[in-house]
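Title: Prediction job returns without error message
Component: structure pipeline
Severity: low
Priority: P3
Assignee: unassigned

Description:
Job completed but the reporter wants confirmation the result is attached to the right record. Sequence as submitted:
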Amino acid sequence: MSSSEKRQTLSRGRIVEGALALADDVGMQAFTIRRLASALGVAPMTIYHYFPNKEAIIDAMVDAVFAQIDVPPPDLDWKPAIRIRCVSAREVLNRHPWAPPYMESRTSPGPATLRHHDAVLGCLRRGGLSFQMTAHAYATLDSFLYGFALEEASLPVGGGEEIQDVAAEMATAFDAESYPHLVEFVTEHVMQPGYSFANSFAFGLDLIIDGLSTASRRES
């Protein structure tokens, strides 16, 4: 295929799709336009025909990630609706572990990003939360969501038996007399069948939503 034919098959959508795949594979520290061009099989200058710079590509990538997150269903009460949104967001961020630091840092949000924020704000306001409580709710929910996603992405292993094996190795290296509570927690909880770090997400999310609901009732 000639360079002109490659350029004809290229599009903004294909570039963003390729950028997401590359970032998922190598992370953002190793993400470059030259590397993206190589993955797409085109010359780097070809990408500049569609995007003026790397920052514009990142803006589009973040918007594409927001587009994958379910918005709160408008026909549900705000609490189960916002829970659906947060659970979906965690699943999407697990697929794109590079994304959390970029989700709220862009100064040129795209249409999917704006639609998502508008839907979340609408859900919270529909639930009767005041403007002040809506601000608290959005900040608290997303701080937990993005923080949990970052922590999951930084874990040395996944869940299940894999994390139990690692925990067992670590526990044997601890001095039980010096770190009795740490050894007890690892052996009596982390190494037990069924343990999963991910279980804490649902617990924490429900705790926050219930707390916001209580705080909103007190405010009124």
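Comment from assignee: result matches the submitted record. The domain at 69-219 is CATH 1.10.357.10 (Tetracycline Repressor; domain 2).
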